[in-house]
Amino acid sequence: MTLDIGDVVARAGVPPSTLRFYEEKGLIAATGRRGLRRQYDDSVLQTLSLIALGRTAGFSLDDIAGMLLPQGKANIDRERLQAKAADIDKTIRQLSALRDGLRHAAECPATEHLACPQFQRLMRLASMKGAKGARRASASSLEKRSPRPGKPATLG
């Protein structure tokens, strides 16, 4: 079944500019045109769902492109999924610790937060994480990032 770009936009919930961007990246392909409007095989909906799932999980579009085969098929690397799941687990642990620290700070009986050992520990952890992030940001700012269509190029 062939779908018009408007049908794909309505059913997948992505704007036409995203469809064109995904085409440029080789993630999807139009099957042709009817007048000026792109036409897609209905398997594009499954491919768009796979792309959305991959993006939600934190995969880059290049990573996702490596997992897609023609006609909406997938070649998913299970080891890569396990590694991504481990990364997500680590992030959950870090965010849970931050949440717990913030809750403690909100309920801490100390008259001055800076006098609380647990609050001091929270600040040290934030400083260490901030220092690591600053080093990563300065290194990545040297790499020019490719813009999305209609967006100017930026430095990290």
UniProtKB/TrEMBL annotation:
Location of the region described as Disordered in the Swiss-Prot/TrEMBL record: 130-156
Name of the protein: Copper export regulator
Pfam family, one: MerR_1
Keyword entries, A-Z: DNA-binding
PANTHER family associated with the record: MERR FAMILY REGULATORY PROTEIN (PTHR30204:SF97), REDOX-CYCLING DRUG-SENSING TRANSCRIPTIONAL ACTIVATOR SOXR (PTHR30204)
Keyword DNA-binding included in the entry's annotation: yes
SUPFAM superfamilies linked: Putative DNA-binding domain
Domain of life: Bacteria
Organism: Pandoraea sputorum
InterPro entries per record: DNA-bd_dom_put_sf, MerR-type_HTH_dom, MerR_fam
SMART domains, A to Z: HTH_MERR
GO molecular function, one term: DNA binding
Chain ranges of the HTH merR-type domain: 2-70
PROSITE patterns attached to this UniProt entry: HTH_MERR_2
Entry-linked Gene3D superfamilies: 1.10.1660.10
Keyword flag Repeat: no
